[in-house]
Amino acid sequence: MWGNLTATHENNVSNTIGSKVYSRFPESYFLILLVYPLLVALLRYDRLRSIRKTYGYTTRRSFARMTDDDATEIQIAISQLEFPFTTQKALQFALFRTYGIPSISKLLAATSQFSELSTASKRYTDTEVLIREFMSHKPSDPRSLEAIARMNYIHSMYQKNGSIRDDDMLYTLSLFALEPSRWIEKYEWRSLEPFEKCAQGTFWKSIGDAMGINYQKLKSAGEGWEDALQWLDELAEWSWQYEKENMVPHATNKKTAEQTVAILLWGIPGPLKPFGERLVSVLMDDRLRTAMMYDKPSDPHFVFVSFVFTVRKFLLRYFFLPRPSMFQIHGLEGPDLDGRCSLSVWEAAPYYVKPTFWRRWGPQAWVSKLLGLPVPGDEGAKYQPEGYNIPEVGPKAFLGKGVESAKETVHGLAKTRTGGCPFGRVRAD
Question: Residues 80-98: what's their mean pLDDT?
Answer without folding.
Answer: 96
